Amino acid sequence: MDHRSGQKSAAQYLYPPLDPFDQRMMEVGGGHHIYVEQCGRPDGVPVMVIHGGPGGGCSPAMRRYFDPEVYRIILFDQRGCGRSRPHASVEENTTWHLVADMEAIRAALGLGPVILFGGSWGATLALIYAISHPENTAHLVLRGVFTMTQEELDWFYGGGVGRFFPDLWQRFVSAIPEDEQGDLIGAYHRRLFSGNLMEEMRFARLWANWENALATIGSSLIGGEGPSDYARAFSRLENHYFVNKGFLEHDGWIVKNRHRIEGIGADIVQGRYDMVCPPIAAYQLADGWGLARLNLIPLAGHALSEPGISEALVRVMDGLRTR
């Protein structure tokens, strides 16, 4: 029986766990060293896995979407998070630094064009890299699309999704004085970078728990308590990028520059009930892009671990190996 058959859990759709055949720390300038690993087939089809956040870090589970007999799987922790160092640092940490890091990884490994596999912020970064380096992008596999627009930020941090989750929204908002609640990203920024470690940790947990509680359609809505160092890195980095509008030149930059990648194929997997990154962004990205296929997954939210999303992503990757 196929190990990915059945309906009980996302894990049933995935390939068995893999061990890396190569792990390294790569110096990328500005005092940053980023963690890079490879697994699967050393001479296989290269796929670069781009984690979310910003600040999320890669995990062993992310290796399991790819047939190890076909793919050479490259994962890395972006600046400031995961095993990369310095931890939780925002110095010399912008979108354009991350794009340069991805290109440095590709060049250091001696790779030609690569498949980019990213979700949420990972989809954002994949799109920006592809727009910047279309000649080095073989295909895009995107999940939970986020195009780094003010409209998307307002939805999640300006009260839009709060209309569906008023209790959780109140918990997130009430930590901030009323006269600062008109700009929650800015208000949290002041506290996440206050220099008072205890205050930074408190607000990091509030920031991270707000997002975690809404990530899956079957969420318990309590958010959970992850490791303190993870919460601080995730929240500081994500907030840093959002305060700076993703370091893009103008709002809507990705869609406006989509013409640069319209000759590249894309598979977009999107939860129909994604409350973190609503489907309208994925729909607008795909609309008019002849080589893009949009797959809206019923009864699925945002997370990579949603069963329907896991199944669709494995199906996409299995399909690409036959082309």
Short structural description:
With 323 residues, the protein is α/β, with parallel strands linked by helices. The protein has helices at residues 95-108, 121-132, 150-157, 166-173, 184-192, 197-213, 228-243, 253-256, 280-286, 307-320, and strands spanning 22-29, 32-40, 45-50, 71-76, 114-119, 137-143, 265-271, 292-297. Helix 1 crosses helix 2.
User: Strand percentage, roughly?
Assistant: 15-25%
Helix percent band: 25-40%
Structural domains: how many: 2
> Roughly how many Å is the radius of gyration?
19 Å
Strand arrangement across the biggest beta sheet: 1-2-4-3-5-6-7-8
| CATH architecture type of the largest domain | 3-Layer(aba) Sandwich
Structural class of the secondary elements?
alpha/beta
Order of helices and strands: EEEEHEHEHHHHHHEHEH
Which stretches are low in confidence, meaning pLDDT under 50 for 5 or more residues running?
Answer: 1-7
